[in-house]
Design brief:
The complex is a heterodimer. Chain A is mainly alpha-helical. Chain A has a domain of 198 residues. In chain A, 76% of the residues lie in helices and 0% in strands. In chain A, helix 5 runs parallel beside helix 12, helix 6 runs antiparallel to helix 12 and helix 14 packs parallel to helix 18. Chain A starts with a helix and ends in an 11-residue tail after the last helix. Chain B is mainly alpha-helical. Chain B has one domain: Helix Hairpins, CATH 1.10.287.3510. The relative contact order of chain B is 0.13. The chains are: A mainly alpha, B mainly alpha. At the A-B interface, helix 6, helix 7 and helix 11 of A face helix 1, helix 2 and helix 3 of B.
């Protein structure tokens, strides 16, 4: 009994979040869907409690080298890596909840399930980022996906929202199926669902692990890995599995787009980091491991180069700000993938840091989109004319986010990119760093077109409306983007702690 | 019957599912193709478990996959119903408001 309670304590954040979700669902029914703002406030309160529990867990984990020795119930791996992403998920979910509350185009009543679905998606993220077991990983991923499909189609009478949901569910279902088939092949070849056991071997009857299996039968192993990677690539919208991204991001309600582009994508990357780390960065099981890991690294490097180039070039010719941000998020997936492709612990740290930076700047950029939709009722870049003079606080915050997205100092995006470039060169991926640098120059053009339209054109006559709360929040987020860029030591230590708790060998610097 | 036969059936089912998704224009057939892929994975899990002699992991996964497939079908059909209501069609190619 005591042991059971201890294990239960390890998954306290998940339990609290589930409880909050149930309370939200029940209270919405009790209040019969009237005045859904109250449900939003309950959600925010619940998220604050979850964040507090997570923070305590993060501090406790410091005593045990960042990871618990045992897994809770044999499935949930509690470590600083997972807790890092959970903290950021809770933060971004709180912001998204705020966006729903501030969304002027949203109804006032009968949207209680909006919050419930968001919380459900977050529970999925919580489980998927903190497990080494492929079964629990898949269940978390599907919980996130199913909630996201419903959220994308949340505006039932809106044709664009319905179409976005349809496209999302078809692509999502296909990629989930393909990934599941890949997992079944991996299970067949290694006899285990545990990623660590899979990478190192040692399961009864299968003493050799995946790397040695690769030597015996390269084709099935490669096929299985590619199928599983395809599932992840869809989730983080890496080319060639990115088709759904612009359409879904454009059609979904803006707060949902924010959630998909920030929390969902970062969670996908977290799982991908854990997957690649456990399977391909293992202590010398066999000489062949190095060569085999390098092939996967090269595959990821090529995908990264193609993804960032295609994302940036497509973003150049967008007239809709929402669609432009969707392509920009594809390009950023390419940058994060650079750190993975390096296949070194430092590269992983750089990826984690960049994801943290990505939370800040993209929450801000989508917040700006929401504000400006509320003012002009349009998503087109051209209708931003003169916003800079009418809404200076929001516009200047947006300029900061744009600077950070481009990767210019003194923002957090600059420092994140610097780390990625440095680790890329260190791992011998000089060509990829050159491609990424050229891409950053390309991205300058479309990011600064937004700034140009805001400040260098005369305002057209329009009704002047403001949302002081949202504007103030964006200003704070803008300040944070600069502050974390200048004083980045703490965030980098945290990223490093997260990476260290993954258990990948620290001297894996090859090449 | 050996493991190879099961894997062959599941590979065939997987291939058919992919073909259905690529060639069919009606979203209901696409969803059926997805179900076929999920069931192909299920056959794999159960067969590998039966011949691998390593606990119950594979069978557990198969049961959970069945639940996943049911949940996904429920959500997908709700979305398709809504699309049919708005577009009077269940063909993804006719819902094309979102494009470049």
């Amino acid at each position: 009994m005591q042991a059971y309670l201890t294990q239960l304590g390890h998954i306290a954040p998940e339990l609290v979040l589930t409880l909050v979700a149930l309370v939200v669902l029940v209270m919405d029914l009790v209040w019969k869907g009237r005045d859904s703002k109250r449900i939003g406030y309950i959600t925010l309160g619940g998220l604050a409690v979850t964040a507090w529990v997570l923070w305590n867990q993060w501090r406790t984990l410091g005593d045990t080298n960042g990871a618990l020795a045992e897994t809770a119930f044999g499935m949930v791996t509690v470590d600083r890596f997972g807790t890092f992403f959970k903290l950021f998920t809770v933060g971004s979910l709180a912001v998204v909840t705020g966006f729903v509350l501030a969304d002027r185009r949203e109804r006032k009543h009968g949207i209680g399930e909006y919050y419930f679905l968001l919380l459900g998606a977050a529970i999925g993220i919580f489980f998927m980022v903190s497990t080494n077991n492929l079964l629990l990983l898949m269940l978390g991923l599907e919980l996130l996906s199913l909630a996201s499909y419903s959220l994308a189609g949340f505006h039932k009478g809106d044709k664009r929202s319905a179409e976005a949901a349809l496209k999302y569910v078809i692509f999502g279902g296909l990629s989930a199926g393909v990934m599941l088939y890949g997992i079944s092949l991996l299970y067949g070849m290694t006899g285990t669902l545990d990623l660590n056991a899979m990478g190192r071997g040692g399961t009864q009857g299968y003493p050799v692990g995946l790397a040695a299996q690769f030597l015996i039968s390269p084709v099935p192993v490669a096929l299985a890995i590619v199928l599983v990677l395809a599932g992840f690539a869809y989730k983080v919208s890496v080319v060639p599995f990115h088709f759904w991204t612009p359409d879904v991001y454009e059609g979904a309600p803006t707060p949902v787009t924010t959630f998909l582009a920030v929390a969902s994508k970062a969670a996908g990357f977290a799982v991908l980091l854990r997957f690649v780390g456990s399977l391909f960065l293992v202590d010398g099981v066999h000489e062949a491991v190095a060569a085999y890991g390098e092939k996967v690294g090269l595959l990821l490097a090529v995908l990264a180069a193609v993804t960032m180039t295609l994302g940036n070039l497509s973003a150049l010719r967008q007239t809709s700000l929402k669609r432009m941000l969707a392509y920009s998020s594809i390009a950023h997936a390419g940058y994060v993938l650079m750190g993975l492709a390096a296949m070194t612990p430092e590269g992983f740290t750089a990826s984690i840091f960049y994801l943290a930076a990505y939370y800040f700047m993209n929450l801000g950029a989508f917040g700006f989109l929401l504000y400006f939709e509320g003012v002009t009722g349009s998503e087109q870049v051209d209708s931003l004319k003169g916003m800079g003079w009418r809404h200076p606080v929001v516009a200047w915050s947006m300029v900061i986010f744009l600077v950070s997205l481009t990767g210019l100092p003194p923002t957090v995006g600059f420092y994140g990119k610097l780390l990625l470039f440095y680790e890329g060169i260190d791992a011998g991926l000089g060509w990829l760093v050159v491609v990424a640098a050229l891409n950053s120059v390309v991205s300058l053009f479309y990011y600064f077109r937004v700034a140009k339209v805001m400040f260098l054109t005369e305002p057209e006559d329009a009704v002047r409306t403001t949302q002081p709360a949202l504007a103030g929040f964006l200003a704070i987020l803008g300040a944070l983007t600069v502050v974390t860029g200048v004083v980045n030591e703490r965030l980098r230590t945290w990223s490093d702690d997260g990476q260290a708790s993954l258990g990948i060998p620290q001297d894996a610097a090859r090449r | 019957m050996g493991l190879g036969a099961y894997v062959a059936v599941s590979a065939a089912l997987f291939g058919l599912g992919i073909v259905a998704i690529i060639t069919r224009r009606n979203v209901l057939y696409i969803l059926m193709g997805i179900e076929m892929i999920l069931n192909a994975a299920n056959i794999n899990f159960v067969a590998f478990n039966r011949f691998g002699d390593n606990g119950l992991d594979g069978r557990m996964f198969a049961i959970f996959t069945i639940i996943l497939a049911a949940a996904e079908a429920a959500v997908a059909l709700a979305i398709v119903l809504n699309v049919f209501h708005l577009f009077s069609s269940v063909k993804p190619s006719e819902a094309d408001l979102l494009r470049e």
